[in-house]
Amino acid sequence: MSSKPEQKETHQANGAVLPIVPMDCLTSPDRGQLVEPSDFLGPDGDGVEVVVLESRANAKGVREEDALLENGSQSNESDDTSTDRGPEPASPLKETSFSIGLQVLFPFLLAGFGTVAAGMVLDIVQHWDVFKYVTEVFILVPALLGLKGNLEMTLASRLSTAANIGQMDTPKELWRMITGNMALIQVQATVVGFLASIAAVIFGWIPDGHFSIDHAVLLCASSVATAFIASLVLGMIMIGVIIGSRKMGINPDNVATPIAASLGDLITLALLSGISWGLYKELESKAYVNPLVCAFFIALLPIWIIIAKKNAATREVLYSGWEPVIIAMAISSVGGLILDRTVSDPNFAGMAVFTPVINGVGGNLVAVQASRISTYLHMSGMPGESSETAPRKCPSPCSTFFSPDVNSRSARVLFLLVVPGHLVFLYTISSMQGGHTTLTLIFIVFYMTAALLQVLILLYIADWMVHWMWGRDLDPDNFSIPYLTALGDLIGTGLLALSFHVLWLIGDRDTDVGD
């Protein structure tokens, strides 16, 4: 047996066979010295050219995958060659806290002003006849506004991940992703809108025991029409935002989901108010209009199903993506029941303007975090694969908010945006004389406490839920955001209602209820 290192491959160059030697073999067994050059002399003493390959074992822990999304490329670089530290997982998103905050800030403020506008609209329309006499419409509000979390934000997260991993680089791939996903969200919007109306009827019937078939059909027609039109408009906006983000060198994960909500709340609430008001006006003279509206949108379902089934990227979601959106709709409807019971009391009518704001801000921030964590995991493998970046244990709050990794850094940045963001939004509402309330110091303290607690809980749940789903072979892009935004609606509405009740009991609320 030869004492020379074993040559597993050869390399042909200029008619000579050259040995390919692993880097490990160039060191002596004690790793202290390099192997002498004489070991690689030819039979007549002439030198033999050696092609050296770096060992994968030696490179483990010192190769870091650089996926700077600004240039859309990936490169390998050895940032640390120290042998004193153990292997570290790759960090796909090398972003500083400043860069994360800078990219998130503008979409966050834009989304926040969208929720402020939605709150002002709700503050006005709560006095319309359809909201007074068909109070179950209030139950539809969080459920339909939550569609941006169930559908548009999920679409944004799904397309952002596809863009970041190169699945939308060619026109053919881009068109395939657009058509399949648009058809998918139309199916989901129609079904979820129909189920949301049923939930509103049930939740409205349980406390009072009163049921009206005309009101039930009105709720169904309003919900289905609103969900369909809003999802169509917002889906097209999302596609444009993600394509534009990639061309501008911006991480779509940081901007797509907040922009999905910036106009989402306003468009959805305006559509719900206008459609329900118009159908309510036709209820007495043309009772057949409401059933026809329901039948029309439901009749379009087979077309969207066929288109979505033909696309491999959306076929799986079409079959398996119903559980999160339906459960999320039910969770949001519970929040809607809280809103209905609270706003119906004249003492708490001022809560209407703040509900879309606190729910929207919390949902926007947690959707950004969930989308970022999902992209981070997708860059290290596929759902269900064992990965150092996907811990299976429940994380501690310290690891979620205070560890040095990029996801913890983004969680801190997003949490720090809560107070300044809400101060701006509260000032805007006060300037526009919305909410039938005076912004006292104690009210701001209670409101900020509720907002901070909501986002703190949501970011922690997001860290656990995304990794939990990943470890069980579930794509977080399709499953996590609906649950998180629905929980945001429930937690936000519940904490806000609790704050209003406490403030009313201690006599600090200065309400001025009127038309």
Automatic annotation (TrEMBL):
It is a multi-pass membrane protein. One of its GO terms (molecular function) is monoatomic cation transmembrane transporter activity. Acts as a magnesium transporter. Pfam families: MgtE. The chain crosses the membrane at residues 104-124, 182-204, 216-243, 255-275, 287-307, 319-339, 411-429, 441-461, 481-506. The gene is Slc41a1. GO terms for biological process: metal ion transport. GO terms for cellular component: plasma membrane. Its main location: membrane. InterPro entries: SLC41_membr_dom, SLC41_membr_dom_sf, SLC41A1-3. This is Solute carrier family 41 member. It comes from the Eukaryota. Keywords: Ion transport, Magnesium, Membrane, Transmembrane, Transmembrane helix, Transport. Residues 141-275, 355-498 form the SLC41A/MgtE integral membrane domain. The keyword Secreted does not apply. Residues 1-11 have a biased composition (Basic and acidic residues).
